[in-house]
């Protein structure tokens, strides 16, 4: 089956070769790179991918630019470089696309987040659904970080998983990345508080994407949110069953929320 692949990269030499190798659709692989300073682009070319360069201006803009490239096929699988396709998921995607009604626009999958050699089955907040296969021209990405996907048609959830390795570049890199994320998130949240009221009805709707957006809007208005996030992940979601990895990951998520809170307060008084 002919499916195109899009991978967004910036300094992903540690991850990219394994990501491309995990994908069975090798005829039309595109790597959209934000001018990496390592060997990412040469790795992509050696693997047979077409490389495109674009200065990074935001996650939504980057994905929209990538999804508008000249793909050979109507369906595009979009991956992050630290994600791995599984044979089970690849077969399921092919089956869904081969029998797809015309109104099917997007396929959503869950990820198995790996840390310290194990799947964070509980402390990661699993299951969270991520759009990863798109019918060309039917999806628009919005929001600068933790993107939101708006689609013309129907979205369908799949049973199989991606495998996600967010710590392949080290724990220090994770903190550096989330330091940048928290800066962007604080700025976006401040704008949303001023222009985007909570839609309570969407908290209880059947659309998992809309429900997640509404819940996030509510969560980010809660007092003591970082501690609530830790208790939720480690206690209520049984993160303690993930052992030492679960304790560390829930604590790191709490640290990330603390960074967002501090920067949000700084943004309010103009010191960000």
From TrEMBL:
Sorted UniProt keywords: Membrane, Transferase, Transmembrane, Transmembrane helix
GO terms, molecular function: transferase activity
Pfam families (UniProt xref): Glycos_transf_2
Top-level taxon of the source organism: Bacteria
Glycosyltransferase 2-like domain residues: 4-141
Gene3D superfamilies membership: Spore Coat Polysaccharide Biosynthesis Protein SpsA, Chain A
InterPro entries named among the record's database cross-references: Glyco_trans_2-like, Nucleotide-diphossugar_trans
Residue ranges crossing the lipid bilayer per the database entry: 227-250
Family membership: Belongs to the glycosyltransferase 2 family. WaaE/KdtX subfamily.
Protein known as: Glycosyltransferase involved in cell wall biosynthesis
